[in-house]
Specification:
Blueprint lengths: L2 E6 L7 H14 L4 E5 L7 H4 L10 H5 L9 E2 L6 E4 L12 H12 L4 E5 L6 H9 L2 E6 L3 H16 L5 E8 L1 H7 L3 H8 L3 E6 L2 H8 L4 H4 L3 H13 L12
Helix pairs in contact: 1-11
Length: 247
């Protein structure tokens, strides 16, 4: 049975979706069958981060309602092990039947090694829908104080939901920023109250890859792309040192 991983953030602007896409791509490169599900009904940007914005895709709601089988999710043109379901349009997250959603994901478990759910930022209905279904939760934060505080609040909500397997990724971090904020990795973990899964450095390749309709891991080899590969290996259970972006 496949593993469900919800990729969440306490606030917008943390780069959660690019991290989700990078990890999903890396897991698929490692030979896993991976399904990416865009659960962010309001914004729907996961296709851009995956470099497939010009590719037609069915929505997860169409699969939930039985119009399509989950195996019909769009195949990535570059990574054959990676498939994608987009978010529906004009359907509030609160209107989605959680039982239908759970049934769809249970079917996906039988066909994929990993299912990654890119949830909307914040702690509203879409956040809770993805979190409830997940076996493992990745909480993405930026290094700024507001993002870290919101990550802590999101973690508290998840703990109230009974979620245990929660790990932190600090995205868009640089030595210069850390020095200006007088910030260490230990500070971030202490403030968020979560163990660290990985660090992703600030990297202009993320923006350039999206602008040129390319997946990050196919566009760049270092920086954020390399960090996503390290995180994917850690998810698989391999011992991989965390990138020393800051001391």
């Amino acid at each position: 049975m496949g593993e469900l991983i919800a990729v969440l953030s306490g606030k917008g602007g943390t780069g959660k979706t690019s991290v989700c896409a990078g990890i999903a791509t890396a897991l698929s490169q490692m030979g896993n069958k991976v399904l990416c599900v865009d659960c962010d009904i309001g914004l729907r940007n996961l296709d851009i981060a995956l470099g497939i914005s010009e590719l037609g895709a069915i929505s997860f709601l169409d699969v939930c309602r039985g119009d399509y089988d989950v195996s019909m999710a769009s195949h990535h043109p570059v990574y054959p092990n990676l498939q994608f379901l987009t978010a529906p349009m004009n359907c509030p997250a609160g209107d989605i039947d959680p039982l239908e959603f759970a049934r769809m994901l249970n079917k996906a478990r039988k066909k994929f090694n990993y299912i990654l759910l890119d949830a909307p930022a914040g702690i509203e209905a879409g956040f809770r829908l993805a979190a409830k279904a997940a076996d493992r939760i990745i909480l993405v934060t930026g290094p700024d104080p507001a993002s870290i505080r919101d990550a802590r609040q999101a973690a508290q909500v998840l703990e109230q939901m009974g979620k245990k397997n929660i790990r932190l990724i600090v995205n868009r971090i640089s030595k210069k920023m850390a020095a200006a904020l007088n910030l260490t990795v230990d500070d971030i973990m202490d403030e968020a109250g979560l163990p660290l899964l990985g660090l992703v450095p600030e990297d202009e390749q993320v923006v350039l890859a999206a602008a040129f309709h390319q997946p990050l891991l196919g566009y760049g080899k270092k920086g954020a792309a390399a960090a996503c590969r390290r995180i994917a290996k850690r998810i698989e259970g391999h011992f991989v040192p965390v990138l020393k972006v800051i001391k």
